[in-house]
């Protein structure tokens, strides 16, 4: 009865640091941080959408890893699914090209220093816990 639209978010880790992207649009989300990614288009697989979105938003050549168990509700009818991803050898460095104005590699002690979108907080926390990342226990006061 109700349509369900999947949004994929990428957990890009480099030497224990997580890539976060600060929204520049839409206006109600501007200035808040999120995992980079976007909507899965009709007929597209989630992992293909992740690779496409990272190319469009960050200008990188990435490959999807595995899907993190679970999904998190966004504004209906959207749900967030999180995938691990890595930059392919020779890929350009990530740049904020679309819908973002800043990127930041956050070390374990910095992950909860940014103002995450409220709906990303549980996804980031649970994803880091799933990966055994040392920053997984934070985030209680962040943007929630």
Automatic annotation (TrEMBL):
UniProt cofactor(s): Mg(2+)
Annotated CDD domains: NUDIX_MutT_NudA_like
Keyword DNA repair: yes
Taxonomic source organism: Streptomyces djakartensis
Primary enzyme class: hydrolase
Swiss-Prot/TrEMBL catalytic activity: 8-oxo-dGTP + H2O = 8-oxo-dGMP + diphosphate + H(+)
UniProt record similarity statement: Belongs to the Nudix hydrolase family.
Keyword tags: DNA damage, DNA repair, DNA replication, Hydrolase, Magnesium, Metal-binding, Mutator protein
Residue ranges annotated for the Nudix hydrolase domain, each copy included: 3-128
Key word Metal-binding present: yes
PANTHER family assigned: 8-OXO-DGTP DIPHOSPHATASE, NUDIX HYDROLASE FAMILY PROTEIN
Source domain of life: Bacteria
Enzyme Commission identifier(s): 3.6.1.55
Pfam family, one: NUDIX
Designated name of the protein: 8-oxo-dGTP diphosphatase
Cleaved signal peptide residues: none
């Amino acid at each position: 009865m109700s349509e369900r639209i999947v949004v994929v978010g990428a957990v890009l880790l480099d030497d224990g640091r997580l890539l976060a992207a600060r929204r520049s649009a839409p206006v109600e989300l501007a200035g808040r941080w999120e995992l980079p990614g976007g909507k899965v288009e009709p007929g597209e697989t989630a992992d293909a959408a992740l690779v496409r979105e990272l190319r469009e938003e960050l200008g990188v050549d990435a490959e999807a890893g595995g899907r993190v168990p679970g999904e998190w509700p966004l504004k209906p009818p959207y749900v967030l699914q999180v995938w691990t991803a890595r930059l392919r050898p020779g890929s350009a460095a990530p740049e904020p090209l679309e819908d973002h104005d800043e990127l930041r590699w956050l070390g374990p002690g910095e992950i909860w220093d940014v103002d995450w979108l409220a709906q990303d907080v549980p996804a980031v926390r649970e994803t880091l816990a799933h990966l055994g990342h040392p920053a997984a226990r934070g985030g209680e006061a962040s943007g929630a």
